[in-house]
TrEMBL record:
SUPFAM superfamilies: F-box domain. InterPro entries: F-box-assoc_dom_typ1 (IPR006527), F-box-assoc_interact_dom (IPR017451), F-box-like_dom_sf (IPR036047), F-box_dom (IPR001810), SCF_F-box_component (IPR050796). It comes from the Eukaryota. Pfam families: F-box, FBA_1. Residues 8-48 form the F-box domain. This is F-box domain-containing protein. It comes from Gossypium raimondii (Peruvian cotton). SMART domains: FBOX (SM00256).
Length: 398
């Protein structure tokens, strides 16, 4: 006797599929045209990218001093391992930095060149952004009574986010123009600043009014929360220095200034690193002049800052990298080894991460992103640029 055929409703099938990782969904594209088209609907994409958090280590070093990215996974043995190492061919001779993550997409930019890209590490799609078409204004020096020569252009303190009003992804970057008197033997530099905004929808850059304040430091991992980007800035000289937070709304394209919270204390004596923690703006605060350093994490909600936890004195820690899953804090020591601090147990351990640059590496940063099917009308990575070199006891599968 033939058993009756049982079919699940399509809505339930899509709900089940939305829980799967991007790797599986990519394979299922060939099952049928309906599945393939359904995977690209805004509803399905939004359901999918909220599920799977991934971590990406950005490292520079080796014999060629090139930038590599190591995807981390803690699915096996409850320990962080390298899932794969990736070298991006479109930055072959450059050293790009990651400036933010949004909806599973990462923005990469080389500060020394007019070169940027948007990258989806889950689908391996990337889009190289067009060069800026914005005019660089001349600089007239009243002292020299002449126009100066443009000597250098730097692209720093970028951010990447989403404008929900126009359904558009945008990149903002601060441009520093250096002018000199070319007739002087030892010319004194003069600086001018511009701000550029890229729209993925129009695939073009435009200049927007520059704020009175400039970002002073790069943030930890990501500085974008719910349509707004944040940077640390300040005003005044050393003893009179006052810390501030510069923000930019991707929707109305306006800058604002927020005060650094009073809990910081005497600002020159403390480091304050902005970061995203549990989808909220956070600040890691720690003293500058101590060998064994303790950390306080503060998070803001609707303008109110609350202390999340304190990490007691940790000896030998040099740099903070950021947070992973379940509040795990990543750090580096004096040997550039990556450490993991478990806030719940107050335990610190060396991860012994096996990366492509084990013998010599520097400029390490950590970036958290959600797996995503979002398409950016780009091109596909070449498989040969994925270097499979997992840590000990890890599977070679990807």
């Amino acid at each position: 006797m033939q058993r009756p055929r049982f079919e699940l409703p399509e809505a339930l099938v899509m709900e089940i599929l939305s829980k799967l990782p991007v790797k599986s969904l990519t394979r299922f594209n060939c099952v049928c045209k309906y599945w393939c088209s359904s995977f690209q609907t805004p509803y399905f994409i939004s359901n999918n990218y909220h599920n799977n958090l991934n971590l990406l280590l950005s490292l520079c070093g080796g014999n060629t001093f090139q930038r590599y990215f190591s995807q981390l996974s803690n699915e096996k043995y409850q320990n962080y391992i390298v899932k794969q190492n990736i070298h991006l061919p479109f930055f072959k001779h450059d050293r790009p930095s990651v400036y933010g993550a949004c909806h599973g997409l990462l923005c990469l930019l080389d500060p020394s060149k007019d070169k940027a890209a948007i990258w989806n590490p889950s689908t391996r799609e990337f889009k190289i952004l067009p060069p800026s078409s914005i005019q660089r204004p001349p600089y007239f020096s009243p002292f020299d009574e002449t126009y100066l020569t443009l000597d250098d252009v730097e692209f720093n303190h970028a951010a990447f986010g989403f404008d929900s009003k126009t359904d558009d992804y945008k990149v903002i970057r601060f441009v520093t123009l250096t002018f000199v008197n070319s007739e002087e033997e030892y010319p004194h530099p003069h600086f001018m600043y511009q701000v550029e905004l890229y729209s993925l929808r129009s695939n073009s850059w435009k200049e927007i009014p520059s704020p009175d304040y400039k970002p002073t430091e790069k943030t930890l991992g990501n500085n974008y929360v719910d349509g707004i980007c944040y940077w640390k800035t300040g005003t005044g000289a050393y003893l009179d220095f006052r810390g501030l937070i510069l923000s930019f709304d991707m929707g109305n394209e306006k800058f604002s200034i927020l005060p650094i919270p009073e809990f910081v204390g005497s600002f020159p004596e403390y480091y304050v690193n902005l970061l995203v923690f549990n989808r909220s703006l956070g600040a890691i605060v720690y003293p500058k002049e101590r060998i064994d350093t303790s950390f306080d994490l503060w998070v803001t909600s609707e303008g109110v800052w609350t202390k999340q936890f304190n990490i007691k004195s940790i000896s030998g820690v040099v740099h903070l990298l950021g947070f992973g899953k379940n509040g795990d804090l990543f750090l580096t020591d004096t040997n550039d080894e990556v450490l993991l601090f478990d806030a719940s147990t107050q335990e610190l351990k060396e991860l012994e991460i096996n990366t492509y640059l084990d013998h010599y590496r520097f400029d390490i940063s950590l970036h958290a992103y959600l797996e995503s099917l979002v398409r950016i009308n780009g091109i596909q990575e070449i498989e040969k640029h994925v270097i499979r070199q997992p840590a000990r006891d890890a599977s070679n599968e990807y």
